[in-house]
Amino acid sequence: MKISRSIWVLLANGSAVLLIYLTIFLRFPGQDNRNRALWFQFALRAIVPILGIVLEFIGSRLAKWVNVGYFTYVAVVLFGMNFFVGSHFYIHRLFNRSWIFPLAAAGVTYFLYSSWWVAPPTAPTRT
């Protein structure tokens, strides 16, 4: 169980870090080695998913809250941006459901951290 959870955390948080990198550095092509402000912005945004990976691999109990909380926070922020800042046209809101993916990632992460679906250990029987 711990191996599958570690693989999931590595894939989910690693893809979040990759997506953060691509959204920052694709806006300004050719600036990634010269612009320290872009690297600082990347570091500030990517510190939580990287911290979640590190905490998972060292076996910390805080890893659950960092990983689930990060994806929940991203989903809430994207939902708020979609609902309050988005266009007033209904068709735009109909197709812009970008908050569903981080919310699903938070749900899967929470499910993998929960212990209710794992079979409880059985007590040895005396004969």
Question: Could you characterize the architecture of this molecule?
Answer:
This protein has 127 residues and is an all-alpha fold. It has one domain. The protein contains five helices and no strands.
Question: What summary fits the major beta sheet?
Answer: none
Oligomer: single chain
Helix and strand content put the structural class at mainly alpha
Strand/helix succession: HHHHH
Annotation field: number of helices: 5
Which overall shape is indicated by the principal axes computed on the Cα atoms? elongated
> Poorly predicted ranges (pLDDT <50, ≥5 residues)?
none
Could you tell me the number of beta strands?
Answer: 0
Question: What is the residue-averaged pLDDT?
Answer: 81
Count of distinct structural domains: 1
Distance between the termini: 31 Å
Q: Roughly how many Å is the radius of gyration?
A: 19 Å
Report the portion of residues in β strands. under 5%
Helix content: over 70%
Brief summary:
The chain is mainly alpha-helical. It has one domain.
Write the layout of secondary structure elements.
Blueprint: H1 2-25, H2 36-58, H3 63-85, H4 90-95, H5 100-113
